[in-house]
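quick one, 279 residues, struct below
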Amino acid sequence: MTQQDTTNVTVGTPVRPRRRWLKPAAWCVWLLVPVAGLAYHVAAGQPHVQRDDASALIAEAKTILERDVFSDEAGKPLDRKASQEATIRKYKEAAGKYAAARAALPDADEALRLDLRVLELQNRIEAGEIVAAQSSLQSMLAENEATGKYARRENDLREELARASYFIAFAMRREGAAEDEWRPESDIARQQFRHLAEVVGAEKIEDYKRDLETVIRFQRLPNDEADDQDQPGPSDRAGKTGKKRGQKYSKGKSQGQGDIREQVKSDAASSAKRGGKGS
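---
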């Protein structure tokens, strides 16, 4: 064998096997890329996907809350009834979006899930779903007292409970309820606002003192003057314009709420029944 032949054998022999194995290996790597992507999506990437879904729903809720409820799409002013219905629909839809966002989040995001629950309940109160919101708030505060689970937002829960309870008392009184029916609801509001006025920092104490005074004044007013009572709550402090909240929430039947006294009695009966089963 000549030196040239030896060179050809030495240099050329390893080359062909290397080329034969290179293409199948590259194809295997290429085919594994979508598998790796799927694994990331199902495992480590899933929380990111869930948070993206929740973020989109939160953005939708904010867009809904910016909706104009005083005019239609053509800019024509709505009458009072249509505006009221649009307002209720807006808050209901926003509450639903916040609830969906909370459900979309991974269980590990407890803090954000709680924030979304508070936002949901705030919007349900604005939508007139007051009795159901009050029941949820009372349950959350009872759980917090036992476990401290919601301690970070306890004051917010108390404020929303106070608002809901006041609105219930206001509506019941305008519907002709006896004092022994509406006063317990206003007492819940009074107790919660008193507690908040005692524990919050200096920047909010005057707000809660005014809210407390509003509830006490409502309890002392004769029936024929109670309709003109102001409503406590953060929206009023922010300078919210339009009809008084009392007018909005006292129209239980026009909002599809029925007699709010019956809702309160039904909710109380259900709670008692659940308590009986648990004992």
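Confidence is low (pLDDT under 50) at residues 234-257, 274-279.
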